[in-house]
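ok trying again, last paste got cut off:
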Amino acid sequence: MDGGALYGALHLYNSIMVTTAGQYDTLDRLAKQSLTSVAKNIIVKRKEDYVVFEEYRIIKEAEDRFTVTDSYGQQTTFLSSRNALSYCIFLKNRKYDQAQLLIRLDTLLQRKLFDVEVAKNILNSSQDADRKFTALARVEIDIETSKDIRKQITECVNNAKYFQQRELDNEVN
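nice, full thing came through this time. structure:
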């Protein structure tokens, strides 16, 4: 191979490498931009907790206790992960009234479930017939109320799903 041919081959190799490196840098920059814009709409699992929309963290405290911590350190506790996630969706979409409604419903459900457990304990441990009758009457009311609250929570969760889907559709468009 003469010097000109060798120079030509090296020049071609270098231009391919520069082009490839330039394309790689462009691809890398585009990927980072895409991930940064998409990160506002994704949920990432990190160990035992979830990072939601880069702003919120959902931590499983117990079987029926999920804590949402926002970027300011404020914490809110829910009975289920779907309620916690719905809360995050409402906050992200600035639906603060829906977020507060979900907190109230979840808290009310927590209280009713506690009342049901207390009534069950009374029914199982008390020897007093009047006390058992009163506990039974209360537990029936609390169970019916719990069903109604669960329906309202399901409506809230469905609203959150709608807002998230609408946001994703806007992102795609």
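cool. The chain is about 70% helix and 15% strand. The first helix runs from residue 3 to 38.
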